[in-house]
Amino acid sequence: MKIPISFKVNGDPYTVLVTPDQVLLKVLREDLGLTDTKPGCGRGDCGACTVHVNGKPVNSCLFLAVDADGTEIRTVAGLAKKGQLHPVQQAFVDEGAIQCGFCTPGMVMQAVSILEQNPSPTVDEIRKGIEGNICRCTGYKKIENAILTASKKMTERK
């Protein structure tokens, strides 16, 4: 049995039919063709699939699509505005925090969430904030630096 749900993704409205057990990640990638959110472990352990639902980070591989009905969803592709990367995205590029790129969408979304909650986090707060997102390439130092750089740029602009 399929259930109709409606939501916005990066500001665009969508209505789709989903099964009760279908996860948001599958809807985004397969039903809507929005492949910027990456599948990882499928168990909520790696954070590669992190998106924001009503401003809160969630593992889209575990989040049931039916629970997204009526929500606002933001993916990494929805961060850039008018051709300009979001400060977190730009900082990841500038600091070399992207290697294989597999974890990057989820890591960027988690970093944005950290900075939205605390515009000037300490390194320890950053480490705590990203602990649910696994990166196998960078050793996290460049990611931490990118988040600190983004924090500085974002607070300077205010």
TrEMBL record:
InterPro entries: 2Fe-2S-bd (IPR002888), 2Fe-2S-bd_dom_sf (IPR036884), 2Fe-2S_ferredoxin-like_sf (IPR036010), 2Fe-2S_ferredoxin-type (IPR001041), 2Fe2S_fd_BS (IPR006058), Beta-grasp_dom_sf (IPR012675), Diverse_Oxidoreductases (IPR051452). Pfam families: Fer2, Fer2_2. Residues 3-79 form the 2Fe-2S ferredoxin-type domain. SUPFAM superfamilies: 2Fe-2S ferredoxin-like (SSF54292), CO dehydrogenase ISP C-domain like (SSF47741). CDD domains: fer2. Keywords: 2Fe-2S, Iron, Iron-sulfur, Metal-binding, Oxidoreductase. GO terms for molecular function: 2 iron, 2 sulfur cluster binding; metal ion binding; oxidoreductase activity. Gene3D superfamilies: 3.10.20.30, [2Fe-2S]-binding domain. PANTHER family: OXIDOREDUCTASE WITH IRON-SULFUR SUBUNIT. This is 2Fe-2S ferredoxin-type domain-containing protein.
